[in-house]
Design goal:
This protein is an all-alpha fold. It is built from 19 helices and two strands. The protein has a two-stranded antiparallel ribbon with strand order 1-2. The N and C termini lie far apart (70 Å). The model is unreliable at 1-39, 194-202 and 415-419 (pLDDT under 50).
Length: 419
Amino acid sequence: GGQPRNVQPFSDEDASIETMSHCSGFSDPASFTEDGPEVDEEATQEDLEYKLKGFIDLTLDKSAKTRQAALESLKSAFASKILYEFIMERRMTLTDSIERCIKKGKSDEQCAAAGLACLLCVQMGSGIESEEIFKTLGPVLKKIVCDGTASIQARQACATCLGVCCFIVTDDITELYSTMECLENIFTKAYQRDRETNGVSSTHNTVLHISALLAWTLLLTICPMNEVKKKIEMHLHKLPSLLSCDDLNMRIAAGETLALLFELARETDADFFYEDMELLTEKLRALATDGNKHRAKVDKRKQRSVFRDVLRAVEERDFPTEMVKFGPERMYIDCWVKKQTYDTFKEILGSGMQYHLQSNDFLRNVFELGPPVMLDAATLKTMKISRFERHLYNSAAFKARTKARSKCRDKRADVGEFF
């Protein structure tokens, strides 16, 4: 019976509730197409856009926790839905919010903002609008990447964002070279440490060096061939030193980069010759058969799997073709350049990768998939299995997997280590 209160439309609690209740729906594109009664798609889209407008407003909130929650919610939505028209109308507002959060936010907020910037460019694709976004955010990202006082996590996220956004939007060769130089200045410090300590030790900077190296490698795949030759001459004899790093992810990043450099070198020159080939293959073979007991089994298996492929690429010019399924389509990853590109965007989009491969014009152009395949409702319905059939299939697969594992776990059987 008291007087009515003025209630804020989005408080800290509301932001966290909104984040929890809607991110789960955004995280899996299949959640929009589950079996059930038909819904009014136009009303659902309006409802989604209304919530997203609220999240965009919350990126300007005074509370850092609220801003971060809003950024994460927008990331989840952008990763799982194509929202080109909605974003086009608000791209400058979003760009300003991201810039402000990267400049003034703390570590977690900067990471979330950098991640959102990647997804914003993925949604917009390569065009004038994306170039405007990168012109605004590029200098800010470079400043954080090179700022020794910023947190390592923020610098790592900004390095990845810088590489991905430059890959998507830039047609300016000068900007491409400038961005690559910025990233080189970061990961080449790992070479210097190797010279100083005769072995690359694991430090808190390693994660930054890995992100910078992978972002640089992504940009190398779109460089002109004369520039590729220069970069190969500059780095091919230095990269093997990173294979001695204590950090597994650094060893893997260096190995995969080496495989990609060899692939590009042989494309530019069929008679390409590497002087220290014997020493390099010896190192790669040691990593592909590593049995050190002080390393975790999971790490050893992952390392051996990766370096078997790297060794085949360097020695035999071979690549183990992988197939990616998305909807009714299939894509074959048949080279290291394609693998590097796919892995990068999969890391950014997460579970939304398949959806974007089906619907995102930019990604389809990158992987040469052609225009999106348009399927009518009747065709989609015939392709979709019911929940009951899905349940039966999962049950059968579970039983078969359990039986196979039981045999492997039988202590009476003398079984070695399984790969």
